[in-house]
Each structure stands twice: as structure tokens, then as C-alpha cells.
């Protein structure tokens, strides 16, 4: 079973990578970019009988730092 | 206008981060994980009149390394 986990910084948390991308886009001449936020897309191939609690555990224990990040799981 | 850019490694390209996550999940006791691949999710807020060619240019010039990465743009 294929899973997609989207990990994004919580609103209000400073995003230095997003800032760096935003700045670089400007110096490359791309106008009209108001904001950039960078997160992670983690694609997992897991056994079909993996239940939601286990997936949640993977996210909370490793894939996302729930103090500053949100995560969303999509079964592909 | 909000855009989501998904940047993923091309199949066959070695993914050390994915490997590290896979290994860590195993040591945390999560069984049944067959593969892990990590990519980037870049969320941009751009002017409404930003056209596809410009967005494509941002991806090709900065957001993705098209030699080893694929990218997909989603208008949110």
C-alpha cells in the first residue's frame, strides 16, 4: 500500500528555507511571488494491513516534529 | 494564487534520506515498511496573473534539479 505524508511547518513558524527560495526567485527575475513555504513529501510503501494507528505513530514519532510541524496522510 | 509544487527524485536515483527514514522506522519497531522516498513540497503564493510558462521557469531554474528530480505543479 502506498502512502503519501505531507509535512508542513505550522503557520507562524519561521521558514528560513522558504525565505531563501523567495529571495532567490526574486534575484532570478521572477516577480509577483508573495510567499514561499517549504515542506516535505514522504512516500512510503507499507504492508496492506498497516492500520491508521501505526501510520499515525510513524508520523508522530519520526516523520514530523509535531511541535512545529503539521502532517497529513494520503493513501495513494 | 496559491501553488503547490511537488518535487520528487526520479525513479532509480539513490535516496539516502529515504533510506535513513526507512532504517529509523525499523529501529523504532515499525514493521512492514518496504520503501521510503523523501521529496519536497513547496507552497507558493503568487500573483493571480502568473502564467504557466513563468511557473515552469521557476521550477526548472530553481525549485527542482531536473537532472535527478521530477516536479508537478498543482494550483490550490
Describe this structure in words.
The structure is a homodimer of 76-residue chains. Chain A has 76 residues and is of the alpha+beta class. The first copy, chain A, has one domain: Mth169, Chain: A (2-Layer Sandwich). The first copy, chain A, has helices spanning 16-27, 52-63, and strands spanning 2-9, 33-46, 69-75. In chain A, strands 2-1-3 form a three-stranded antiparallel β-sheet.
Topology:
The structure is a homodimer of 76-residue chains.
Chain A: E1 2-9, H1 16-27, E2 33-46, H2 52-63, E3 69-75
Antiparallel strand pairs in A: 1-2, 1-3
Q: Which two chains have the most extensive interface, and how many residues on each?
A: A-B, 34 and 34 residues
Briefly note the CATH topology name of chain A. Mth169, Chain: A
Radius of gyration of chain A: 16 Å
- Secondary-structure element pattern of chain A, one letter each: EHEHE
Structural class from helices and strands of chain A? Answer: alpha+beta
Structure keywords:
homodimer, 76 residues, alpha+beta, Mth169, Chain: A, 3-stranded antiparallel sheet, 2 helices, 3 strands, 32% helix, elongated
Amino acid at each position: 500500500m502506498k502512502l503519501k505524508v505531507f509535512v508542513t511547518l505550522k503557520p507562524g513558524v519561521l521558514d528560513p528555507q522558504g525565505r531563501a527560495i523567495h529571495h532567490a526567485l526574486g534575484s532570478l527575475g521572477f516577480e509577483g511571488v508573495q510567499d514561499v513555504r517549504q515542506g516535505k513529501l514522504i512516500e512510503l510503501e507499507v504492508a496492506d494491513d498497516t492500520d491508521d494507528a501505526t501510520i499515525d505513530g510513524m508520523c508522530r514519532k519520526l516523520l514530523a516534529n509535531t511541535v512545529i510541524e503539521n502532517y497529513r496522510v494520503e493513501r495513494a
